[in-house]
Amino acid sequence: MSEAEHPPMSDSHDAEVAEYHPLCATAVVGLVFGLLSVAALVDPFAWLFPVIGIVLSGMALARIAWIHPELLGRKAAVAGLALSLIFGSAGVSQWVVTRALLRRQARQFTTAWFEALAHGQPHIAHQLTEPPRQRRPLDNTLWKSYRTGPRWQEQLREYVAMPLVRTLLALGEKVQVRYCGTESLAHLQGGTVVNQLENIIEAVRTRSKVCRAAYTIMIASPGGETIQPRGGPCLNYIAVQLEPRPRLVLSLLAVYRNHDFLERAYGNYWGLCNLLRFLASEVEATPGPLTCVSSHAYVSGSKTALRALIGTLE
C-alpha cells in the first residue's frame, strides 16, 4: 500500500492564514444598537438604545486598541459610537426643547385667560377653556356668537357663575397672579401631543355603557421626572371615576407624591374642584366627591405661621 500524497502547502496560503483576523462581535452589536438609536427621536423609552450602543462601542474600541489589536471591527465600533451619540443627544435635546416650549405656551395661555377676566371679557376666557377643535377664533366676531347663539349664552352664564370666575371678574384689574409652575396634562406620543382630558371626555360621551373602572390622567412623563426628588410635578396622577346612579356621578381621586399643606394645598384643591366641575359638565354628570391622597405631606416655614393660619380659621 502506498501512502496518499498530500499537496504541498504554498507559502501564499500560509501567509493568508497568518494574516486572518477575527471580527470583534462587540463592535458589531454596538453598531446595531447605534442604528436602533434613531428610535430615541420618537420615544423616551428608546433612550436605552443609544446608552447601550455607547457602552458596547466604547468597550469594543478599548478591546481592539489595548487588548486584542488583531481584531477587526474598529470602523464598526466608531460608527456605532457616533450614531449612538448623535441620535441619543438629539432625542434628549428634542424632549427638553419640546417640554420647554409646552411650558412656555401653557404659561402664555394661562396669562391670556387671567387677562381676559381682568378686563371683563369672560367670553374670551370661556373660549380658552374649550377643546382646540371646538374653539372659535378670538376676534371681533366672538361676542356676536355669544350674543346670538342660545347654546353659547347658556354656557357663558354657567361659566360666569363659577366661584373662581366670578371672583376674578369682581376683582378686575386688581387681581394679582403669581406663576408657580406648569403641571402638564398632556404627553407626547409618537411625536404628537395627547390631550388626556379631551380623550376621556370623548370616551365617556361615545361609549354606550358606563365604565366603572377609573380613567387615568397621568401627570409626570416617564423618564427623569419620575425619579426627581425635587423639581418634578408633585401631583402624580388623577383617577376619574364614574358611577351609574339614577344620574351619572363623576368623582376624582388625586394622588400627590409631595404636598405642602400651608402654601399649596388650598390652591391645588381649588383647581381640582374646577377640574371636577369642568369634566362633569362636559359629560353631563353630577359632580361627586374629590379625594386627595398625599404620600408625603408637610408644612413649609415655621410653626408660628401655621398657628397664625389656624387662628384665622377658628
General description of the model:
With 314 residues, the chain is an alpha/beta fold. The chain folds into three domains: 13-96; 119-176, no CATH class; 185-314, Thymidylate synthase/dCMP hydroxymethylase domain (Thymidylate Synthase, Chain A, 2-Layer Sandwich). It is 51% helix and 14% strand. The protein has eleven helices and eight strands. The strands form three sheets. The protein has a four-stranded mixed sheet, with helices on one face. It has a two-stranded antiparallel ribbon with strand order 1-2. A two-stranded parallel ribbon has the order 6-8. Helix 2 packs antiparallel against helix 3, helix 2 (25-36) runs parallel beside helix 4 and helix 6 packs across helix 7 (150-160). The mean pLDDT is 81.
Describe the structure using short key phrases:
single chain, 51% helix, two-stranded antiparallel ribbon, alpha/beta, Thymidylate Synthase, Chain A, 314 residues, four-stranded mixed sheet
Short description:
With 314 residues, the chain is α/β, with parallel strands linked by helices.
CATH fold-level name of the largest domain: Thymidylate Synthase, Chain A
Under CATH, the homologous superfamily of the largest domain reads Thymidylate synthase/dCMP hydroxymethylase domain
Strand order of the largest sheet: 3-4-5-7
Label the structural class: alpha/beta
Please, how many domains? Answer: 3
List the helices and strands and how they pair.
Blueprint: H1 11-19, H2 25-36, H3 48-67, H4 74-118, H5 122-128, H6 142-148, H7 150-160, H8 163-171, E1 186-189, E2 192-195, H9 196-206, E3 215-218, E4 235-244, E5 248-256, E6 259-260, H10 265-282, E7 286-294, E8 297-298, H11 303-313
Parallel strand pairs: 5-7, 6-8
Antiparallel strand pairs: 1-2, 3-4, 4-5
Helix pairs in contact: 2-3, 2-4, 3-4, 4-5, 6-7
